Each structure stands twice: as structure tokens, then as C-alpha cells.
Amino acid sequence: PVNRARQHLERHGQTLDDWDGGCGELANEVIGPNDHIIHVEPACLWKYHMVPLIDGLVHDAWCDGPPIPIKEWLIRLCGRDVVTVAVDGVDIYSGPAGDFEEDNK
Q: Which residues contact 40 (CB under 8 A, 6 or more apart)?
């Protein structure tokens, strides 16, 4: 599958600099009626980060490559840091990023 967040940037001739501090707004631009928004905090470089969850995969414009499962994304983004993960505003997990299990969602 194609990373729809990165695809959105390409289609509109934009770069990540155009969305600095706007991860939530970009996620809202990308999601459809059956998709979700993942919110994680802290997120290493940022206080928080928001991305679209489409068909069970994270479409993060700040990550190279295709969309990936939530756990893989959390490990890539946060390593072993303790995080809180929310889906559509509802907290679903708090603990080490690498311990997240897909059945949490």
C-alpha cells in the first residue's frame, strides 16, 4: 500500500516543512469516514504526534516507506520510551512503546 500522508504531500507539491507543527491537521486531511487518528505522547522529537490509521496501518508522512502496523511505528518513533496512545481521542495504551500489542486498539 501507498503511504497516503506522503502521497497527499506529493499531490499538493508540499513538504514536511509546510506542515511543521501540523501533524493533526495533515491527518485530518488524509482520513476517510472509516479511518482513525492515532495520537501518541510524548513522541521523541515532539510533545505529541498524530497520524492517520487507515485499514489498520499507520500512514505517517514523517516516516519513509509504506504504511506500517502501529507497534512497528511506535518502536520506530519512540524506541522503548513510555508513551500514551489514543485512537480517536480515547486512550488505549500507556507503557513502553515496544510493549504495545495490536489487540489494544
A: 48, 49, 50, 74, 77, 78, 83, 84, 85, 86, 97
